[in-house]
Here is the input.
Amino acid sequence: MTTTLTALAASEHVHDLQRQADQWRSADKKADPIATASVELRLARHEDAWALHRIAQLDDAADLDGEVLLALLDGVAIAALSLDDRRVIANPFVPTQNAVELLQMHADHLFGRRERRRRLRGIPRLRLA
Here is the structure.
């Protein structure tokens, strides 16, 4: 009798664990795709012109000029920032606030580095006697 009860309890425990695992798997599949997506920031290339034009049209804005930083979400362009005038275009149908903030921070970093180099070039080096 004890063996049967133990086997029954073990069997129920196994079924509970399987139900929990199934719930966990289904919840994982329903996870927010934006939260698990990969984001890439890079300078736009010639072949990105069509994607930049498409984003500008979706955003009802003019195309960006000059060097452009591009934000890609899982390989799809969603936002861009002009390094010349710091104007931003973004796909209004995708949550892009974080991507735009990343683009602005990256642009600040790039401009800060250029400014430091300019300042350092103008400062004469100290020579120890």
Observations:
- The chain has a mean pLDDT of 81.
- The radius of gyration is 27 Å.
